[in-house]
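Expect chain and fold; thus:
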Amino acid sequence: MKYIHYYDAPVGRLTLVSDGEALMGLWFDDQKYFDVTLCEGCEEKELPVFAQADRWLALYFSGKEPDFLPPLAPEGTPFRKAVWEILLTIPYGKTMTYGEIAREMAKQRGVSRMAARAVGGAVGHNPISIMIPCHRVIGADGSLRGFAGGLAVKEKLLSMESR
């Protein structure tokens, strides 16, 4: 069984999905790549993981760096999961480029190169927005690149973190 929960954030309503133990999804409503199938047959229910997520989000949106993460269980290919693990290492208030992530992936896999475009696809399909901080990934020239929640939201999140 999967469960659904909603959180009203300063950047719009967020939809959270859990297997009952861990978060499987956290999306901005109407965002690109929202996994509707993950929510099919979901029951709205209060769960400890949702309470933890709400506490994390409340801290985050109050301008504080949360010092914990609720249990996360994003579903994806091994490649995507490896990229999401790298995203989790990007410090609060800092950014990383797609190229830097690609170089780290190449190093981890023991290959000479990794395409930044492949990394971009994995970043863009991150199912747990904000907590797995895909908003902290920028272009090589420092520009804001695609974000499933929209560039205005990405800019707001980065600005909030740099206060």
